[in-house]
UniProtKB/TrEMBL annotation:
CDD domains: CobA_ACA (cd00561). One of its GO terms (molecular function) is corrinoid adenosyltransferase activity. Its EC number is 2.5.1.17. Gene3D superfamilies: P-loop containing nucleotide triphosphate hydrolases. It catalyses: 2 cob(II)yrinate a,c diamide + reduced [electron-transfer flavoprotein] + 2 ATP = 2 adenosylcob(III)yrinate a,c-diamide + 2 triphosphate + oxidized [electron-transfer flavoprotein] + 3 H(+); 2 cob(II)alamin + reduced [electron-transfer flavoprotein] + 2 ATP = 2 adenosylcob(III)alamin + 2 triphosphate + oxidized [electron-transfer flavoprotein] + 3 H(+). PANTHER family: CORRINOID ADENOSYLTRANSFERASE. It comes from Alkalimonas mucilaginosa. Belongs to the Cob(I)alamin adenosyltransferase family. Keywords: ATP-binding, Cobalamin biosynthesis, Cytoplasm, Nucleotide-binding, Porphyrin biosynthesis, Transferase. Pathway: Cofactor biosynthesis; adenosylcobalamin biosynthesis; adenosylcobalamin from cob(II)yrinate a,c-diamide: step 2/7. This is Corrinoid adenosyltransferase. Required for both de novo synthesis of the corrin ring for the assimilation of exogenous corrinoids. Participates in the adenosylation of a variety of incomplete and complete corrinoids. It is found in: Cytoplasm.
């Protein structure tokens, strides 16, 4: 088999692939605010969510972030994005196994949710990240029906990104795009501490 023959076969395969991609692109003719869910047991859900926020801000869009189950420790993403005008609402109580106070956690979750609802009705905000929202629903700290209603009734062009494990089935059904991030290997399991600038 000559190099010329291989090159021709490669071009033919790539041309066929291009035609398939072009057809798919031509069929995608709608614009709307998307609901993206990043769930699963693997690392990187919040990181991907913040990557989407950074991308939007880089294009000149306005974004807002709500962080559930976050403590008062430094957050590299918040340090950067607040410098670019991104507002944050942070629960700031830490993980539920740290607080061990369900009543206080529910009050904190509902307080932050009130700010989230403001973001979800603001037509000037193009993208809202609801980081770790799934836990608030699985723990029953927030009312599922209210959360779904607020997401459904948001401004038509507003995008929403939800992160966290064990996403509720009804939220998955509502979503336009769902990524299930699974763990293959994790440094923590080998006794390696979370590293600043990579893990947080």
């Amino acid at each position: 088999m000559t190099d010329d023959y291989k090159a021709k076969r490669h071009r033919a395969r790539q041309q066929q692939l291009k035609e398939q991609v072009d057809q798919a692109v031509a069929k995608a003719d709608q614009d709307k605010g998307l609901l993206l869910v990043l769930t699963g047991n693997g690392k990187g859900k919040s990181t991907a969510g913040f990557g989407t926020v950074t991308r939007a801000v880089g294009h000149g869009y306005k974004a807002a972030v709500v962080q559930f189950i976050k403590g008062d420790w430094p957050c590299g993403e918040r340090n950067l994005l607040q410098q670019h005008g991104v507002p944050f609402a942070v629960m700031a109580t830490g993980f539920t196994w740290d607080t061990q106070d369900k009543t206080a956690d529910m009050a904190a979750a509902n307080s932050v949710w009130q700010q989230a609802k403001v973001f979800l009705t603001d037509e000037s905000i193009d993208l809202v990240l609801l980081d770790e929202l799934t836990y608030m629903l699985s723990y029953h700290y927030l009312d599922l029906d209210e959360v779904l209603t607020c997401i459904r009734q948001r401004p038509a062009g507003q995008h929403v990104v939800v992160t966290g494990r064990n996403c509720h089935r009804r939220l998955l059904e509502l979503a336009d795009t769902v990524s299930d991030i699974q763990v293959v290997k994790h440094a923590f399991d080998a006794g390696i501490r979370a590293q600043q600038g990579v893990d947080w």
